[in-house]
Amino acid sequence: MRVRRPCIALVGLMGAGKTSVGREVAERLAVPFIDLDEEIVRRQGCSIPDIFAASGETGFRRMEHDVLQDVTMARAGQGGVLATGGGVVVTPENRTLLRASWHVVWLRARVETLVERLARDEAERPLLQTGHPLAMRVRELARIRTPWYREVAHAVVDVDGLSVAAVAEQVIQSWCGAVSSQRVREGE
Ligand SMILES: Nc1ncnc2c1ncn2[C@@H]1O[C@H](COP(=O)(O)OP(=O)(O)O)[C@@H](O)[C@H]1O
Ligand SMILES: O=C(O)C1=C[C@@H](OP(=O)(O)O)[C@@H](O)[C@H](O)C1
Ligand SMILES: [Mg+2]
């Protein structure tokens, strides 16, 4: 039997819980955890707001793409859990890369859930600093990005009302389901 190491990437809007859930899933599966934003910050030696201030969203997206490529090369096949940033799907090449190399799980949340969570740490997320009400901005991002999350995801978990542990459990079940289906397809 071929050994399959978990390679799971989490996508979804800001506040959906990708970072929190990703850390928990990696711990439970005993594989490395990578947070794309944390990796960008480590490499650049400055915070996400500082990167946006210095290089704009275009510069940030270029860094995000480079780091995603490197992490995918390093981890795909080796095992790992990747928490992406909410806007990773904006770049078409990222969608292709994610879909081809990771089991992609979309953490889907209602706008109300996201707003409640993001109100606490809005300042860390430059794309929320528009001067418009938070709910309006989140709704706009959801409208633009939902088709991309749908395109890239192999599975969806609805996170509203669930604890981090409960979402992590569903992500792991989705991975197990994908492995079983692959075994059936390959006649193992
Ligand atoms: N399932 C959950 N239930 C309650 N709060 C959560 C849950 N998941 C994440 N949070 C909280 O929401 C905020 C955003 O979570 P985070 O993991 O940073 O999301 P993302 O990486 O998707 O932006 C944090 O304050 C986190 O503690
Ligand atoms: O939605 C986005 O475009 C972004 C989401 C953030 O990550 P989280 O989704 O982890 O908050 C971070 O990458 C950056 O502020 C841009
Ligand atoms: Mg995050």
Task: Describe the 3D structure.
Catalyzes the specific phosphorylation of the 3-hydroxyl group of shikimic acid using ATP as a cosubstrate. Its EC number is 2.7.1.71. It is a single chain. The protein is of the alpha/beta class and 188 residues long. The chain has one domain (7-175): 3-Layer(aba) Sandwich (Rossmann fold), CATH 3.40.50.300. Helices cover 57% and strands 12% of the residues. It contains seven helices and five strands. It has helices at 18-29, 36-44, 48-75, 92-101, 111-118, 134-152, 164-185; strands at residues 7-11, 33-35, 80-83, 103-108, 155-158. Strands 2-3-1-4-5 form a five-stranded parallel β-sheet, with helices on both faces. Helix 2 (36-44) packs across helix 3, helix 3 runs parallel beside helix 4 (92-101) and helix 5 packs across helix 6 (134-152). The radius of gyration is 16 Å and the shape is globular. 35% of the residues are buried. The mean pLDDT is 94. The protein binds adenosine-5'-diphosphate, shikimate-3-phosphate and magnesium ion (MG).
Task: Name some characteristics of this structure.
binds adenosine-5'-diphosphate, 57% helix, Rossmann fold, 5 strands, globular, 12% strand, alpha/beta, 188 residues, 7 helices, binds magnesium ion, binds shikimate-3-phosphate, five-stranded parallel beta sheet, P-loop_NTPase
